[in-house]
Amino acid sequence: MMEQRKAMPPNEYVPPIKAANLPDGTPLAQLTDEPIYIDSLPQKFNCTWQRRFGELRELLGYGVDQPMMNDTKEYWLRLPAQQDSVWGKQLLRLQNCCWLDPKAYVEHVPAHWKTIEVALYHSLSQDSQLQGTTLQVKVAPMSNIDNFEEVFSTDFSEFSIQSDCPENQVHRQLITSVDIPSHISEKGAYAVQVVVFAADGSWKSGWTFEGIGVTQWK
């Protein structure tokens, strides 16, 4: 497991989202704290946003628009946006589910971001049960975006239990820092995928997921 570097502070509330035709690589001075959808570049997964996060540019991957069956409240449901949510959009709440593996993507990560920090936007509660779950970070060149390869993996149940996170409040939690393999970055911009799954069919419950954030490690 790669050494984890110091996490950044939890995000504060941001107003509802807006869309703007800002190009990838927009200077930090032109960004705001409010997430802005990147619509100037083609996206396969249509979930990449960007914003100013302190003195950094953060690329964001909203994770609740992934194709799913209709809400089945016994297993999972979409919750209304909370004041502490980043996108001002719905949240994904896993009530008691084994087959649904939440994931999010960030596309068009600049090739010169050789080392990145990956964060999760989520919330836990007293009844959270995530035993047997694994969190993976994968990357792929934009030129071959269907060919993701794993660069980090951890026991997510152990990771989440150890965190000193606020209960039932969406917050930003650092997952890890990742050195991007040279054979990926040398091909230009790349994509990042984060997925939480249970290979043995273990149930995931009491967990709310919103998305991921990617920043260049300084």
Q: Could you describe the 3D structure shown?
A:
The chain is mostly beta strands and 218 residues long. Strands 1, 2, 3, 4, 5, 6, 8, 11 and 13 form a nine-stranded mixed sheet that branches. A four-stranded antiparallel sheet has the order 7-12-9-10. The two termini are 20 Å apart. Helix content is 5%, strand content 43%. The chain has one domain (18-216): Sandwich (Jelly Rolls).
Sheet with the most strands, sense and barrel status: 9 strands, mixed
N- and C-termini, Cα separation: 20 Å
Q: How many structurally independent domains?
A: 1
Give the number of DSSP strands: 13
**CATH topology-level fold name:** Jelly Rolls
Return the average pLDDT rounded to an integer. 80
Structural class: mainly beta
What is the overall number of helices?
A: 2
Shape: globular
Share of helix among residues? under 10%
What is the CATH architecture descriptor? Sandwich
Strand content: 35-45%
SSE layout and pairing:
Layout lengths: L17 E3 L15 E3 L9 E6 L2 E7 L13 E4 L11 E4 L8 E7 L5 E15 L4 E8 L7 E7 H7 L8 E9 L2 H4 L4 E8 L7 E12 L2
Parallel strand pairs: 1-2
Antiparallel strand pairs: 2-3, 3-4, 4-13, 5-6, 6-13, 7-12, 8-11, 8-13, 9-10, 9-12
Short description:
The protein is mainly β. The protein has a single domain (18-216), classed as Jelly Rolls (Sandwich). It has 2 helices and 13 strands; from the N terminus they run E-E-E-E-E-E-E-E-E-E-H-E-H-E-E.
